[in-house]
Structures are given as structure tokens and as C-alpha cells.
Amino acid sequence: MSRKKSQKSKGNSSPASCSIPPPKENSKVGNDSHTNGMVMSGRPSLSNSGEFYDISFKVMLVGDSGVGKTCLLVRFKDGAFLAGSFISTVGIDFRNKVLNVDGVKVKLQIWDTAGQERFRSVTHAYYRDAHALLLLYDVTNKTSFDNIQAWLTEIHEYAQKDVVIMLLGNKVMLTVGSVCSQEYGVPFMETSAKNGLNVELAFTAIAKELKHRSLKTPNEPKFKLHDYVKKEVKGSGCCKS
Ligand SMILES: Nc1nc2c(ncn2[C@@H]2O[C@H](COP(=O)(O)OP(=O)(O)OP(=O)(O)O)[C@@H](O)[C@H]2O)c(=O)[nH]1
Ligand SMILES: [Mg+2]
After folding, report:
1. Residue 115 CB less than 6 A away from ligand 1
2. Is any ligand 1 atom within 6 A of the Cβ of residue 170?
3. pLDDT in tens, 193-204
4. What is the pLDDT of residue 69?
5. Residue 221 has what pLDDT?
6. pLDDT < 70 positions in the chain
7. Model confidence over 181-194: pLDDT tens digits?
8. Most buried residue among 52, 59, 105, 121 by CB atoms closer than 10 A?
9. Residue 119, Cα to own-chain centre: how many angstroms?
10. Residue 31 has what pLDDT?
């Protein structure tokens, strides 16, 4: 994963080089990427990591620098926490994970973006291919919370209209007061990349929603993301309704 030592943002600093260039119009990034989430052959496909999957989706992690996007992805993918000094992501990078959702193998191609302002144009180029967006803020950092509206505006400008959005208040410590919200009309949960709280759930909920949208099985009850999240979420409950 492309990461570099954190630098204090100087506002007008020149753009650093990116690990992966932005995609060209209609291009597919990676050997096993799919733009519409469906694998059309009817047979399972093999991902780069050697795992079979039935359907594939792109999920993007976005939010201010330092809110914990990379740590959340590492927690989900490897079950570990990246402790130590903060290494800010440069550009954009992705990792795949295949989940079993009700007997269907769903591959999530998870794009970890750089939160720093100077990489914003790189991130914009990826929005249009995303099927879902996990928008993070840091519950201990009010500025990152205040910036949520700006992120949502950006998402609505660059992403597909039907993109699945979920808001995550990361770095939850159950003993500390948190900035939390469900006022944005998108599903919300508290997470901790450090102790793993709700991390698996956040990605599973997204995978379930995308799978249900893609494979509409007759007689299967409609999946409601909001309800699922409300039912399954763990935590202090300050943001549960
Ligand atoms: N206490 C606590 N610290 C966390 C948690 N998640 C991330 N951190 C810390 O927050 C800092 C930033 O985490 P990153 O995952 O690198 O942040 P990022 O959002 O990827 O930042 P950019 O790559 O710059 O956009 C690191 O020092 C992490 O150790 C968490 O859940 N709890
Ligand atoms: Mg990062």
C-alpha cells in the first residue's frame, strides 16, 4: 500500500506523484475490475489473490486525512491495527477481499484514497466507478466531522447517483465522549480500526446491499441497509436510534 511519512499540509504545496495514475475515461483499473459489479459468465471468476468470486464491486474509502481510512482497511483485510507514527497515504491504492454473502461470493475491491487536499483531483477521477463509498470522520476530531457536508457535496458531484454511501465515525473509544451524527440521511455507525468495533459489519453491510441490488431473487425480502445497520451495530449507542 502506498504510504508516505505524514507532512503537515502547507496549503499550496505542489502535488506529489501518485502511486497509481487516475483512470482514463471508461478504462478499467486492475486485471479483475468490473464496472457494473456483475460477472457475466455465470461461472465464478478468479481474483488476483487466487480467490473465486461471483460478483465484484468497487468500494472507496474517503474522508479527511488522519481519520483512519488506511487503518480501517488494514483491520478489515488483515485483522491488524497499524499502530505507531501516522503515515499518510499518497494518491490511491486498493486491496481486494472476498466475502460470503448469503452463499454468494462477493469481491470488494476497496480503494483507499488520500485524504490530503492536494490529492483531491486524483480521488475525483475514481468516484464515477465506485459502487459504494465509506465516508469516515474521526470522532475525536471536530474538524473532520464538520467537513462531512463538504465531502457529501463532492460525492454527489462526482459519484454515480445510486452509489451506496455509509458514514463511519471512526476512533471510537467507549470511555470518551464522541462527536456523532445521523443527521445526513445516510446509514451511520461508529467504528474503531484499533479494536475492530463494527469494522467487519461496515463492509458486510455494504456487500449485502450491493449483492441484493445486483441479484434480485424472487421471493427474497427486500434488503434494507438502514434497518440492517441499526439491528447489527454494536457500540456505545450514542448514535443508535
Ligand atoms: N485510537 C485510534 N487511532 C486510530 C484509529 N484508526 C486510525 N488511528 C490512528 O490515526 C492515524 C491516522 O490513521 P490512517 O489510517 O493512516 O489515516 P488516513 O485516513 O488513512 O489518513 P490519509 O492517508 O492521510 O488520508 C494513525 O496514527 C492511526 O494509528 C482508531 O480506530 N483508533
Ligand atoms: Mg491513508
Report:
1. yes
2. yes
3. 999 999 999 999
4. 98
5. 81
6. 1-43, 47-49, 174-182, 235-241
7. 657 889 999 999 99
8. 59
9. 17
10. 38
Q: CA–CA separation, 125 vs 18, rounded Å? A: 13
Q: Kindly state the cell numbers that stand for 113.
A: 484514497
> Beta partners for 174?
none
From the CA of 6, the nearest ligand is 1
Distance 46 CA to ligand 2 centre (A): 27
| pLDDT value of position 177 | 52
d(CA 105, CA 185): 29
Is residue 75 within 8 Å of residue 136, measured between CB atoms? no
Cβ–ligand 1 contact at 178 (below 6 Å): no
Residue nearest to atom 7 of ligand 1 (CA): 68
The answer for residues whose C-beta is within 8 angstroms of residue 214's C-beta and 6 or more apart is 37, 38, 55
Rg (CA), the chain: 17
Is the ipTM beyond the 0.95 threshold? yes
Tens digit of each residue's pLDDT (9 = 90 or more) over 88-107: 999 899 999 999 999 999 99
Centre of ligand 2 to C-alpha 116, Å, is 9
